[in-house]
C-alpha cells in the first residue's frame, strides 16, 4: 500500500483502569487499545488512522486526546452537542478534524451519548468556522428525508458505515469515497477481519488510480 494511505474509521476502548466508560451507555465493549490498533494499521499496510469518539464514553474525550497527542499519524472525530464544549476553535490543533452525529431509522436507534441531526444543524456554522467537517451515522431509510438539508450545510458531510449501501457507490461518485475498517467491529458476531474487508475493497476497485483516491487522496483532503 502506498505511503499516505488511511483507515478513516476506528474506535479505541480502554485500558478501562485509566479510561473508564460512561455510566450512561448503550453498550459495553471489550478493551481495544491504541497499541492493538497501531498493529492493525501496520498489518493492513496503512499509514494513518482516524479515531472516532465512541458514544460509550459520553463527553469524556480524554482517551481520544491522549491518543492524538501521542501518535502523529492519527486524527480524531469528536462527538459534541450545543454546550458540550465552550468552543470548537483550536480543536484542529489537537488533531480533531470532524464532529460526529447520528440519525438512524427505528425507535431508540441512536445510542446514549450520541449527538443528533438537530445538533448537527445547530453546530454546522461553528464547525465551519473551526475548520471541521461533519460525520453522520445514518442509513438508507433515514438519509433520503434529510439529504436536501445536508446539501445546504456550510460544511462537508461524511456518511459513515456506508449509509447502508455497497460497492455501487464506486460507480456513483468515487471522488467522494473514503474507506474505514470500523475496528474493533462492535456488536458484530463473528467479528470480521479488517484485512479481508480491505481486500474486498481492492476486488471492487481494480483501477489503481481509483483505489489511490479512496485510500490516499480523498482522505488526505479531509484529515491531513
Describe this structure in words.
The structure is a single chain. This protein is an alpha/beta fold. Helices cover 33% and strands 15% of the residues. The model has no long low-confidence stretch (mean pLDDT 93).
Structure at a glance:
The chain is of the alpha/beta class and 224 residues long.
Write the layout of secondary structure elements.
Blueprint: E1 6-10, H1 34-44, E2 48-52, H2 62-70, E3 74-78, E4 96-103, H3 117-129, E5 133-138, H4 143-151, E6 157-160, H5 168-172, H6 194-204, H7 208-223
Parallel strand pairs: 1-2, 2-3, 3-4, 4-5, 5-6
Main beta-sheet annotation: 6 strands, parallel
Shape: globular
CATH architecture: Alpha-Beta Barrel
N→C terminal distance: 18 Å
Strand tally is 6
Quickly count the helices.
Answer: 7
Which percent bin holds the helix content?
25-40%
Mean pLDDT: 93
Order of helices and strands: EHEHEEHEHEHHH
CATH class: Alpha Beta
Give the number of domains: 1
What is the radius of gyration? 17 Å
% residues in beta strands: 5-15%
Derived structural class: alpha/beta
Strand order of the largest sheet: 1-2-3-4-5-6
Unreliable residue runs: none
CATH topology-level fold name? TIM Barrel
Tell me the name of the CATH homologous superfamily.
Metal-dependent hydrolases
Amino acid at each position: 500500500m502506498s505511503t499516505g494511505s488511511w483507515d478513516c474509521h476506528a474506535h479505541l476502548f480502554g485500558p478501562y483502569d485509566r479510561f473508564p466508560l460512561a455510566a450512561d451507555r448503550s453498550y459495553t465493549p471489550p478493551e481495544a487499545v491504541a497499541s492493538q490498533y497501531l498493529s492493525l494499521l501496520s498489518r493492513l499496510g496503512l499509514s494513518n488512522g482516524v479515531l472516532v469518539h465512541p458514544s460509550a464514553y459520553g463527553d469524556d474525550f480524554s482517551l481520544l486526546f491522549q491518543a492524538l497527542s501521542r501518535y502523529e499519524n492519527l486524527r480524531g472525530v469528536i462527538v459534541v452537542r450545543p454546550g458540550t464544549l465552550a468552543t470548537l476553535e483550536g480543536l484542529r490543533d489537537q488533531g480533531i478534524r470532524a464532529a460526529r452525529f447520528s440519525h438512524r431509522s427505528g425507535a431508540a436507534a441512536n445510542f446514549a451519548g450520541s449527538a443528533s441531526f438537530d445538533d448537527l444543524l445547530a453546530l454546522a456554522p461553528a464547525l465551519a468556522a473551526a475548520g471541521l467537517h461533519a460525520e453522520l451515522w445514518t442509513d438508507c431509510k433515514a438519509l433520503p428525508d434529510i439529504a436536501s438539508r445536508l446539501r445546504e450545510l456550510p460544511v462537508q458531510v461524511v456518511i459513515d458505515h456506508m449509509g447502508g449501501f455497497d460497492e455501487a457507490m464506486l460507480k456513483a461518485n468515487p471522488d467522494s469515497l473514503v474507506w474505514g475498517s470500523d475496528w474493533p467491529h462492535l456488536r458484530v458476531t463473528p467479528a470480521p477481519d479488517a484485512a479481508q474487508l480491505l481486500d474486498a475493497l481492492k476486488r471492487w476497485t481494480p483501477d489503481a488510480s481509483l483505489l489511490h483516491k479512496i485510500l490516499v487522496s480523498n482522505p488526505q483532503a479531509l484529515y491531513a
